[in-house]
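Q: A small favour: would you put together sequence and structure tokens for a protein?
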Amino acid sequence: MTLLQVAALALLQGFTEFLPVSSSGHLRILERWFGVRAPLTTFDVVLHLGTLCAVIVFFLLHQRQDTLALLRFKRPRMLSAIILGTIPTGIIGLSLGRWAESSLEDPLWIAGGFLVTAGLLFSTRMARASRGTRPEPSWRDALLIGVAQGVGVLRGISRSGITISAGLHLGLDRQGAFNFSFLLSIPAILGAFILEARHLDGLDMSAALLALGFVIAFASGYVALRLLKRFVLGGHFWLFGVYLIAAAAL
């Protein structure tokens, strides 16, 4: 891979991992554009690590007290919700992940996923989805949002888009839906990182390019989180649906 290809893929991964536009769909399209067909296992692992670090740093910087309380097991309800939500995500991801990667590569499938995600985003404009009052999910909410996150393994379906939409429709307030979506993403991204890292048998590209990919994925992921938080809290989350309709058409 060239320097430009590494930078473009890492930038896209960082932004689309957290913005509600589907990182898997966008990355597949860009890989086809660049003619990258061989599996880039090490590169994928490094990009996942960069986005994982981005979400952890984001919560430590912007919600330090709540995050530290969670790490010190002083928020048992939220910790239980994360564990419960991770269970269906893991089951669905392990069951469908390999199939989705190998079978849903056609751009038409990706375009369809974009349109489904757009519909979910537009649905959050409904009255109930804009009047949520609960800052934390119940156990039932956690399981349902975990199922939604598992469905996000399908190409074109945005993980953040489907989980935040689910949280809003279940009655979480905007801050609560945003927080739980990305707290729940940490074990999901960590799991993907571990699964991919298990198959590494050495570097398949230079250390310098891998380091560049990590830095760009981390920085763009952090910026994407800050941007998305503004859109969600401002009630403009649905606007990403407009972009997805255009992307599907293209």
User: Anything to note?
Assistant: The longest helix spans residues 76-103. DSSP finds eleven helices and no strands in the chain.
